[in-house]
Amino acid sequence: MTAIAALCGVLIDYFIGEPRRWHPLVGFGHAAIWLEKKYNRSDSARGKWRGLACWSLLVIPPSCALYLLLQELSGLTIFLINCLTVYFVVGLNSLASHGRNVAKKLLLGDTVNARLQLSMMVSRDTNELTDQQIAAGTCESLLENGSDAVFAPIFWFILFGAPGAIFYRFSNTLDAMWGYRSDRYHQFGWAAARIDDLLNWLPARLTVFGYAVSGHFSKAISCSRQQGGLTESPNAGHVMASGAGALEITLGGPATYNGVEHQRPAFGIGPLATAIDIEKSIGLIQRCTVLSLQTVLVIAFFL
User: Which of 59, 58, 85 is nearest to 70 (CA)?
Assistant: First the structure.
């Protein structure tokens, strides 16, 4: 029933999208902001321990509480909770919507609003990006978040049910909020970033293979092997390189964060990304999602 619940949860997300009100992650985000403001002391030598303590307080109790709750329930109720959990932790519809918002503006020649739409997806500076850079940044964000927001939550749900999916999603959210190398978060966000790297290590490698099967296989694998290790992240480079190779386009290159330009390697092989490649990136993620769910259902059938 776990595999069926995963399928149902993804289908609900695909057809309905995120709830506009009362999304659990919104309340979680407010709690994370409050704790960080209260306990983050960037000049404190104990910043890492404070960050780990806050991470533990936010991630572990909800996961354990959900696990204990499920022990008291049975049958249809557990199935419904599992479906809703997958629905809340998977962001397939949201990714496609954000990506298409950027593509629509680019295809209309509205560079200013395309930059604005992209700024909702990435942390880099977008005010001076060209149309090509906007398209590339959108494809990069889609491909990377295909792993973080779709395949990793499904992976942890299949392994450990709803508590595992909640544990992963909350941890990944804290990495997105705290996992920066800035003065403010370098110490406090260290634990969130490292734990997220660990939780995403295997799902990211499975995503590499999924992108390869769903696109140009040999180029995806080759790009991941040759380019994936060129970034500080142990996971993001492999995912983006594989996705770019699967689509036969080139991503990466310099990007500016908080006014400082960072030199990044090129990912993939082929022409530079354009607005048309945004929809192709969405299609790659969707095909990979179908492949993942099919694989899970086949395995569940034979077990």
Answer: 85
Reported as a single tens digit per residue, the pLDDT across 132-160 is 999 999 999 999 999 999 999 999 999 99
Domain membership of residue 95 as a residue range: 2-201+292-302
Map 242-299 to HEC letters: HHHHHHCCEEECCEEECCEEECCCEEECCCECCCHHHHHHHHHHHHHHHHHHHHHHHH
Alpha carbons 28 and 32: distance in angstroms, whole number: 6
Cβ-in-10-Å burial (0-12, 13-18, 19+) of 205 comes to middle
Tokens of 3: 């595999």
Q: Does any domain span residue 225?
A: no
129 neighbors 144 (Cβ within 8 angstroms): no
Query: Per residue in 190-249, pLDDT tens?
Result: 999 999 999 999 999 999 999 999 999 999 999 999 999 999 899 999 999 999 999 999
What pTM does this model have?
A: 0.95
| Total domains, the chain | 1
Flag whether 226 is in a domain.
no
One-letter amino acid of 135 = A
3-class DSSP state of 125: coil
